[in-house]
Design brief:
about 110 residues; mainly beta; 4-stranded antiparallel sheet; 11 strands; globular
Length: about 110
C-alpha cells in the first residue's frame, strides 16, 4: 500500500500549486479521501475531503473558496488545486485514504 504525494514547492503569495496523491495497493474510490496539513509548530489539521461516492466535498474554513479537492478514480489519484495561496498555507501536506497516510509534500508560500 502506498500513497505518494507530490507537487509541493516554493510559491509566492497569491500563486497556485496543484498537489497530487497517487494511490497504489488499494481499491480506490470506496472510502473517503482527504488532504491534511501540518504547519511548523502546529497540530495536523484537515484541509479538504471527498466524503462520498457522489464526490461530496468538505473544506476547512481557512481554505474554502481557494482550494479544490478532486479525484480521478481511473488513475487512482487525488488532487488538491490550491489558488490564492497565503503565507499561512505553508505546511507539509498529507493525503489520507482508508486509514493509510502518504509521506507528505512540503508547500512553502513566501511573502
Amino acid at each position: 500500500v502506498q500513497l505518494q504525494a507530490s507537487g509541493g514547492g516554493l510559491v509566492q503569495a497569491g500563486g497556485s500549486l496543484r498537489l497530487s496523491c497517487a494511490v497504489s495497493g488499494l481499491t480506490f474510490g470506496n472510502s473517503a479521501i482527504a488532504w491534511f496539513r501540518q504547519a511548523p509548530g502546529k497540530e495536523r489539521e484537515g484541509v479538504a475531503c471527498i466524503v462520498s461516492d457522489n464526490d461530496d466535498t468538505v473544506y476547512s474554513d481557512s481554505v474554502k473558496g481557494r482550494f479544490t479537492i478532486s479525484r480521478d478514480i481511473a488513475k487512482k489519484t487525488l488532487y488538491l488545486q490550491m489558488n490564492s495561496l497565503k503565507t499561512e498555507d505553508t505546511a507539509v501536506y498529507y493525503c489520507a485514504y482508508d486509514g493509510y497516510w502518504g509521506r507528505g509534500t512540503l508547500v512553502t508560500v513566501s511573502s
